[in-house]
Structures are given as structure tokens and as C-alpha cells.
Amino acid sequence: MAAVLRLAVRQSGPTQWICLYSTSLLTSCVKAPSWTRTLHGTNQVLLKCISQQKKLCCGFTQSRLLLMQPLRTLHSTSKVCTAKGNLQPSEEEVGAFTKIIEAMGFTGPLKYNKWKIKIAALRMYTCCVERIDYDEFFNKCNLPDTLNSWFLVTQLHVWMSLVRLKQEGRAGKYMCRYVVHSMWEDVQQRGKVMGIDSTALKSSIKTMTENFYAAIFGYDEGILSEDRVLGAALWRNFFNKQCEDPRQLELMVEYVRKQMQYLDSINGEDLLLTGDVTWRPLVETDAQSILKPSLPTYNDEGL
Questions:
Q1: Higher pLDDT, 70 or 274
Q2: Of 56, 80, 156, 243, which one has the greatest count of Cβ atoms within 10 A?
Q3: Of 267, 254, 21, 73, residue with least CA distance to 164
Q4: DSSP assignment, residue 288?
Q5: Cα–Cα distance between 257 and 246 in angstroms, integer?
Q6: Model confidence, pTM
Q7: Counts for the chain of helices (H) and strands (E), in that order
Q8: CA 219/CA 217 separation, integer angstroms
Q9: Could you tell me if residue 273 is left (phi over 0), alpha (psi between -120 and 50 degrees) or otherwise beta?
Q10: Mind listing the pLDDT tens digit for each residue in 201-252?
């Protein structure tokens, strides 16, 4: 009997060994009284022994089950999180005919008159040029007074205008095209007035075009990220990797953030019909005025 129990201990766990031992003990208790007299007290002892062994086995089994259960219930969900938020431009439902026209390269019917949108685009670009103190940018950011420096400041404000217009659906994207077109027409005219040779001007405009679209990509990534990413984009494109004063970079990051906040507070319909934008100063004196933009005025012709 002892040898059987030792073998059971080696081949099974503690719980199985206790149950096996209890079974063997019960068997021996039942078979043992065959050579003695059966007394009333012996039956009571036998029943008591059986009940104790059952409790013992059940206790070990429950303890083992409790150990197998996790200490706390973890929250699990099958819901998929998406990154879609308010930054997405407003989508307009268009018909199949409009989709076919736009797939062919034409512009379908818009919410507002196309001629009014073109005039508003020209006015918006004018605001990007005439309502900016270039001398303040040149002094604060230590930029040379050249055509390229003028273009760097201008393209930054044009980019901010494009970001705001793209939130206005198809009409805003249509207006973006003419804002950029007005910018390149202005660059070409300024180059001619400055007396730059036509060949050199053409090469310069080609370089400016490449830098413009590279800057847009970097600025888009920066405005959706933290300040150090935006600062890196400004260091590469606006300062042309020649900024040694971190305070200048900090000033420009703060300037872009507050301008975008100000543009977001302007009504989209007013932008599409007027294109009127009043830019915040480079060094802000009244920060609370950002939250109270002045409403533009326009007539029925959109002028």
C-alpha cells in the first residue's frame, strides 16, 4: 500500500495524490471490519471519516480553481478607435455627373459663384501681401531684405490661408488654386520690376516652386504635431537652416499657432465670399483680441 502511494506521489500532483489517498483510505476502512464485529459506533466513525475526506478533497479542488482564476477582471473591447476628428475638411455630397466632370479635369457646380470665388481668392492673396509688416519680420528674424526673403514670409501666410480654405469643401479647394496662381503671377511681376534677367528669373521661380511645395509638406506635418516638429519645419524652410537664436524660432512657432487659431475663428462663408483676412501682429500685445475677430463686410456682388 505504501509503495502504491509513493508511486502516485511521483506521477501526479498534490491534489490528485490527496484524492487517491482518500479513496484508498476509504477502501481500507470499508474492507477492514470484515474480520471484526460490526458495531454501531464503527458505522458512525466510518461516516464521519467519509464526510471529512469529501470536504478535504472539495476544499483542495476549490483552492486550485481559485488560484487558476485571474486576480482582477480586465476590460476588453472590440471597438476600433479612429483618428477622424474635426480636422477633416467638410465633404459635400455630389452627383455622379459632377464626379465624372471633375474626373475629366473640369470643375463642377459649386456652392457659390465661381467668379465671386476668384475675386475673393485675389483679395485673400492681397491680404497676405499688403497686410504684413515685412520690415518687422526681417528685423526680428534676422532675414536679408531680398526677393527670396519676401517670398519666404509670403509663402508662410499663403500656406496658412490654404489650410483654412481646405476646410470649406470643394469651394475652398477651388479657391486655393487661384490663391496660388495669384502668388506666382505676383512673383513674376516683382522679378521683372526688379530688373532680373528672364532666364535667371525663370530658374529662380522653378526653385521657389520646388521649395514652396516642400515647405507646404513640412508645415502641414508641423501644424498637426507638437511644437518641436513645427519648429523644425520653420528652421528648414523659413530660416533656411540659418537660425542660431532659439528665441527667433520660438517667436515664429507662437506666431503660426496664434494665426491658425485666429483663422479658425473666422466664418467660412465670409472667407469664400470676401477673402478678407486681418493678420495678427508678430509680437502680440493683446492676446484676448484673437478670440474676437472683426467681421468682414461685402455686398451682393461679392466685392
A1: 274
A2: 156
A3: 267
A4: G
A5: 17
A6: 0.64
A7: 12, 0
A8: 6
A9: alpha
A10: 899 999 999 999 999 999 999 999 999 999 999 999 999 999 989 999 999 9
